[in-house]
Amino acid sequence: MSATTTNAPKSGGFSLGRLLLEGRAFFALIAIIAVFSFLSPNYFTVSNFLIMSSQVAIYGILSIGMLLVILNGGIDLSVGSILALCGVCAGAMMQGVTLDWAGVILYPPVWAVVVLTIAIGALVGALNGVLIAFFKVPPFVATLGVMYVARGVALLMTNGLTYNNLRGQEALGNTGFNWLGFNRLGGIPISVIVLAVVAVLAGLMLSRSAFGRWLYASGGNERAAELSGVPVRRVKITVYTISGALAAVAGLVLSSQLTSAGPTAGTTYELTAIAAVVIGGAALTGGRGGVRGTMLGAFVIGFLSAGLVIIGVSSYWQTVFTGAVIVLAVLMNSIQYGRGGRKS
Amino acid sequence: MTRQTEGNPDVREVVLAARNVSKSYGNVHALKGVNFDIHRGQVTTLFGENGAGKSTLMKILSGVIQPTSGEIILDGQPVNFANANEARDRGISIIHQELSLAPNLSVRDNIFMGRELRGPMGVDFAEEERQVRRLMEELEEEIDPLTPVEELRLGQQQIVEIARALSVDSRILIMDEPTSALSASEVEVLFKVIRDLTARGVSIVYISHHLEEALTITDHAVVLRDGTMTAYAPRADIDLDWIVRNMVGENYDLGSPPDSDKREVALSIRNLSVPDSTGKDLVRDLSLDVKAGEIVCIYGLMGAGRTELLETCAGRLRATGGEIVLEGQEISHLSIGERIARGLALVPEDRQRDGLVQTMSVGQNLSLASIRNFTRGLFTSTRAERKLIEDSIRDVTVKTSGGGAAIGSLSGGNQQKVVIGKMLATKPRVIMLDEPSRGIDIGAKAEVFRLLAEGARQGLAVVYSTSEVSECLSIAHRIIVMHKGRISAEFDSTVTKEKIMAASGESVAA
């Protein structure tokens, strides 16, 4: 028999290699900050960290939803499109919803726009969940399909154009949409606070709630979880619903930051979110990973690409670096989970 | 410990030997200085409880893992296998306890996996198929080479594993529990094959928990306990008691029916029918009542419908007809979770596939089924969970370093106890166990049965299935024999083994 474990030490004593391996995302982040601080005097400043963090917030929110899906043993390729669809929906509502039969144009207040937008995201996510849990469509295929459909609907709604100027009008009582993207509480951007709240809630859910345990269990061995009485289908649908809702939140944050909403926003964001989860040490086979790692992963990607911009590296090189980091992360994952070998 | 003596006419040439082999995983010593010989053309059986080190030793001999110290001697020369392929090239093959077949591939493709025959047009499928047909004829099994492995019964899959090892012309064949999933007739076929092989000079290393069975085939017995070799002797000098004494060093009684107060009917199955995917009935019009405090054993061969019956009661499979009544309430429409909440728990047959979540710790596995019970509001109570885990580990006597240990670090018997403990933690009224002793050693078996007897004494209704007759005649008050989806006979605990086997449609000749 052998141990394939991360929490039972194999040999007593302190091992530097092991520490580096387990805390790799953390050390990578430290290294990135150190290197760029050395290369550019503008990097290690409070204002730069706040700007970078508000950029990370969007990927971070998406990647928490993605983490839940991946822990469950699935994948959600549709989050980038849901983000765009929800942004466009929010934009449409801010510009006024024309009801022809009543002959009026409705301008819902901002809070209603936010609630409705999140509901739309959750609904699309739930569609993913139902396809996967009840119709047994493989997650990759189901969310790939929904990715195209959601993007297409967003394009149809706007005819390919972008909703600009979502600040709202005093007279209509729908101002404040840009609060989410621009304002600060105690000096911290609202988007970062949203990310922190989402991360804390997700962390608590995973570590302390029965649902969190069910999520890990059905990701680790669905058959065993089912026979233990875990409602595996409900868990699945909930997970994709949450992922959709978080994509909507990210969509709101993004369109608020830009005060505009376009149907092509968020293209390939789903891949960045997956990358953050993987860099954070989660296993794509499900059952292993956590919020802390995923957050570190999101910050690694965000701080790395921001740093490359600041020191003036071409954006093509940024793509290469990001890819290299992802491959390296997966390599480390397989070292961590692969060692110790199989069960006797 | 007896070592092979030179000049003994009964002992033939030693082809493979382990000298002072030790293996440690961190602080765990799986093997301590084991000396072990394999003779040409003979069957050497390894006896020992789970965790005694049998599988570890076999893996070392077959190159799957490397020893921490000591050496392996092949034909008098020390060898060092880097991996299983090197060992296979030198004529050593191993058939693992957990099957290592690709279920999506055909029998032919599995047998030639990784060493496909090359032809002028890529892989020579026709030649491969021909060889597989010949192997299957040798094994007297009617398995078509083109059938996907996932469509075969577990017993047939085992035969495919054996065929794969035979196809590489091994000189030394290591079989780790080859019969654990075979029916009596399939075991007979296997033993005939083993005798043919030894006559051809192939050496067999055999591991089995089925002691009587192993004794009929072996030439030498090696007994391991806690990683140390405790005894070594030729077949002529030993008997069952000797083996058991050396294995456990204590009483191995599986127990007797407990004096429990059998009261009202806890679980009532009425006219239950369960079809397979083609509509053929796996369970046909079956009725059975189990009282609180009663232990019922279901005996039957592979494919008799035992697993399907239990899984239907648990809610995994859907019945086409009949009722399942738990303490007076019809539960056929409920989900698995709801049935568990009402007090009906199943310990599944295949603990790797259906019982354990490998990515979670021992403690998280133990609390998985009952986690609802200590959820207050949104969050679980960490303290309540820790208490439950500690209680479970103590009650079902799991040998582990603690609730945080990885589930993969436990031996098979202890893993099984975790699965049982997980379901007992839901405080069931009725517990069903599908082959609870599969792949676990005598000591763990006795402990599992003692646990069940204790549960029955406290009013728990127990149903367990088995394919070993000796396990029917232990703690069960009543023995039900299933044959082709029906109850073919019902006995009380005074019945003989022969009667049970006759009712199951099994030949008693073995």
Automatic annotation (TrEMBL), chain A:
Keywords, in A-Z order: Cell inner membrane, Cell membrane, Membrane, Transmembrane, Transmembrane helix, Transport
InterPro entries in UniProt: ABC_transp_permease
Transmembrane regions: 25-44, 56-75, 82-104, 110-134, 146-166, 186-206, 237-255, 267-284, 296-314, 320-338
Keyword Hydrolase: no
Places the protein is found: Cell membrane
Membrane topology annotation: Multi-pass membrane protein
One Pfam family here: BPD_transp_2
UniProt-recorded name of the protein: ABC transporter permease
Protein source organism: Paracoccus benzoatiresistens
Automatic annotation (TrEMBL), chain B:
InterPro entries linked to this entry: AAA+_ATPase (IPR003593), ABC_carbohydrate_import_ATPase (IPR050107), ABC_transporter-like_ATP-bd (IPR003439), ABC_transporter-like_CS (IPR017871), P-loop_NTPase (IPR027417)
Key words of the record: ATP-binding, Cell membrane, Membrane, Nucleotide-binding, Repeat, Sugar transport, Translocase, Transport
Keyword Disulfide bond among UniProt keywords: no
Domain of life the protein comes from: Bacteria
GO-annotated molecular function: ATP binding
PANTHER family (alphabetical): CARBOHYDRATE TRANSPORT ATP-BINDING PROTEIN MG119-RELATED (PTHR43790), D-ALLOSE IMPORT ATP-BINDING PROTEIN ALSA-RELATED (PTHR43790:SF3)
Domain ABC transporter: 16-251, 267-509
Protein name: Sugar ABC transporter ATP-binding protein
